[in-house]
Amino acid sequence: MSSSPQTGPGGPAPGAAPDRRRQRLASYTVRNMVYSTLIVLALVLVWWSLTYNPTEPQPRQVEVAATASYAAEQADWPVWVPDPGEAWTPTVVWFEPVADVPTWHISYVTPQGEYLAIHQASGTTAQWRAEVLAGAAQVGEADLLGPTGERRWQTWEAESGNAQRAWLLGPEAAGGATVAVHGTAGEDEASALLASVDPRE
Predict the structure, then answer these.
(1) CA terminus-to-terminus distance, the chain
(2) What value, to the nearest 5°, has the Cα angle with vertex 63 and ends 90 and 97?
(3) Is 177 exposed, middle or buried (0-12, 13-18, 19+ CB in 10 A)?
(4) Each residue's pLDDT tens digit, 172-198
């Protein structure tokens, strides 16, 4: 009776070749995944380096001159247009109704990173003040220097929102229009903004 040939001590064990092939395939798969990941990361870094601009102002500045000219044409009172310098970033500017009252508005990010805005309108109402100085209440008075000289402004405060600190000047002291300066900035930055105002007719 014949017997099957036996593998000698130095010969390959049965199934060794398929095992080695599986190991090679597994190592190739892992290696390919690593290479693919590195390539993707490299592409992402290249794209980021081409698009990242650390000097770009955030948020983007808005164009003030055209809207200020339009407001000055439409309003029957001198429009307060600030020019506080490059350290201030204008963020929103418009001349639109607030509580049905045509209103000039311009807001900034201040040099200290705070928010500060001007609202100005003639014939304002309680509803206008409620919308502009949302949640704020009058807490006192302060003397501030603006384009019409040093005036006594009402001071307002709110626990949160865009009128945490606010200053309100009536039309008799502001050339015929009520002016509200408000935001999260302190009185020093509010004074700096007012000092830069150029009334336009």
Answers:
(1) 121
(2) 80
(3) buried
(4) 999 999 999 999 999 999 999 999 999
